[in-house]
Amino acid sequence: MGRRISAVRALQICLAGRFEATQLYNLAADWDDDETPERETLPEPIPGHGYLIDATARALSPSAALALTAWSEELQGAGACVVITVNQRDWRGDSRFEVPAVRPDAIQVARNHLAERLGSPVQADWLQPGLNRPVSRSLLRGPAAPDPTAGFFSDLITRTVSPTDAIAIAERLHRVKPERLTKAVDQLNDKQNEADAQQQAAREIRAIREEVLLWTDFLESTLAETGTRGQDRVMLLSAAYLEGAPLELCIKAAAEFDPRDEPASRRFREGRSPRRRMRDVGVDVTSDDKAAFESRPGLALSAIRTDWHHWAHERQATREWIERITASGGAAEHWAKQVGERLLELSRTEVDPPFFDVLDHWTTASPLVDPQRIRIVAQLLTRAAQTDELGRDTHKKLLDWVTRPKKNPYQREAVARVCSGSYGQRWPHTALVRLRHILGHDDAATEIAEDALVAHAASGGRGLTHVVETVESWLVKYPGHPAGPRAFLALADPSRPNSVLTSLITIAQASPNIRDFLISGWYTTLEQPEVRERAHHVLVSWAQAVHEDRLSRDFTFGVLTDVRNAHEPVDAMSRFLYGSPDHEDPALIAARFALANLRACTHTQCPRPDCPLTQSPITDDGESSEAVLGEPEH
Predict the structure, then answer these.
(1) Which of 452, 443, 323 is nearest to 382 (CA)?
(2) Which of 15, 120, 204, 448 suits a disulfide with 416, CB 3.0-4.6 Å?
């Protein structure tokens, strides 16, 4: 019915009849705009596997298109395939592979959805073209249809409506009970009825249309045609953003909209009562005195959209009002999450969207931001990243917040929380890039970033390998930067609740590459002054884990022996080897004794060309250093 279903259908056609069982997978476009997807991150070709990449929210560079094309050729050779969906004119690769897609008819999409997916053929017939029956003319004119409701809403969906919006309209139409429309049409169709009954039926039909179309005509009439005063407009807007809040809170928030002309209490309490104003613009007042839209479902969000579109010159004032009432101590401080969700929905379709501006304000307006507000911001950004309309801007916003020269600890923490959740699971590479910037500094966000890194490593599959390869690249590409050492210590810390060190040690015993990662990681980390205290803590934790039989004694101390013998110990290793008054427990004493008697392993691949482990050091008396160290006791 739309681009996604069309892409899935293309995959099925490509693989149909060639294999007994096929498997289809979604692949996230997990790269930044200026990056090229690396071959190592793409799945290996497997016969019968089909892959779908939705790149409509990302920019595809020529190099990225070339890399994906090369991978698709590998897939084709193995009996697999990939379909990439992009926006018009976004494909910058070989034009031979470009297939223009024609958008399906919105009316037919909605009818199919009602009849086949929702099992409502009667409601699907309401949209049948060619039988348009406007309410303004009698239903008795012209030949009678077998079902008087067939084609009744044929003009509800125009040809310019997108398939996605057509589905949304069909979903709302599905909630209308058939007997409700049938009763209204019968009343309107019966000449025996009095004029009042027919007018009531016409009003009921208009109400159904408004519910399905999100109250467009009602709002145009309420906000524009009748010259509604500013107080009424702001009352509706306040109730729309704060639906479900106590009515007094909505009134108080409305009074703070624009107090420049006259005192707010006078402007909003003169003439009609505030509750009367609320009811006059379509707001219900519940029995417990809260603002609701039970009689007009969907009116709240529609009012927000209509207001933003109609009062374009008031957009800045509206955004400032939202920031004012949701600030710490503001009237709607505790309704920030709902307000943010409605701003998110508004920003998906409207020009000059306020969503990101308000989030910027929430994370910078106060010298002390409420921790709960940071969690709300993280949740909203996670949702925004998963939308087609805001996904690309969200990726950029997250990167911008962690790379600004003037660091904002609250924004950094919000990004860390985003990357530690479903965002990091869907876009692991993109999340790790942002986590690297966070790990460059030591604040509240750093610990969250470390937890996210370790959680991804412990997630199973290629998670551990992916994180190890990524951290190893940080250590090589960014020497002197603390992000790599902090990430390494997070992976190497056995005292963490979600520690992956046991898995690393187990793999390293059979994989020289992982063993070399541990040795080179320790070497680089020990040379980083910013993490010396943390490095010493992790070294002590290693000794404690060996003492408690949680780590292999021979292998663990073998790694530390190579680290010690590769280069001169500095600070943390020196304290670990030669003593500290605060750390004289049995585990540490046993570790020093073992390291004093273990021979160095010479197979390691140290990054330094002058590493003594790649040579045969000779002592002053001409003997090999191995003879000085002696044989291990175990």
Answers:
(1) 452
(2) 448
Asked if 421 and 382 touch (Cβ cutoff 8 Å), the reply is yes
CA 344/CA 226 separation, integer angstroms = 29
Number of H helices and E strands in the chain, helices first, is: 31, 5
Mean pLDDT, contiguous 10-residue spans, the chain (634 residues)? 83 84 88 82 91 86 91 92 89 87 87 93 89 43 63 85 86 92 89 82 88 84 63 90 96 83 53 79 91 88 91 92 94 96 94 95 83 96 93 95 92 97 93 96 95 93 91 93 96 93 94 93 90 90 90 89 69 59 63 59 49 41 36 36
Supply 81's token pair: 């395939």
pTM: predicted TM-score of the whole model, two decimal places: 0.79
Token representation of residue 61: 């560079």
β-partners of residue 285 are 291
Q: Is the separation of the CB atoms in 433 and 469 below 8 Å?
A: no
Helix (H, G, I), strand (E, B) or coil at 222: helix
CB burial readout 294-311, b (16+ within 10 A) else e? eebebbbbbbbbbbbeeb
Closest alpha carbon to 625 in 568, 569, 565, 561: 565
Rounded Cα gap, residues 560 and 466, in angstroms: 24
Dist CA 151 CA 132 (whole Å): 6
Helix axes 409-419, 428-438, angle to 10 degrees: 150
Rounded Cα distance between 396 and 430, Å, is 10
Residue 417 near residue 374 (C-beta atoms within 8 A): yes
Within 13 Å and on the Cβ side, how many CA atoms surround 107?
Answer: 15
- Taking the CA atoms of 121, 126, 129 and 131 in sequence, report the sign of the dihedral they define: positive
Main-chain phi, psi angles of 54, to 5 degrees: -95, 105
Kind and range of the H or E run holding 554: helix 553-566
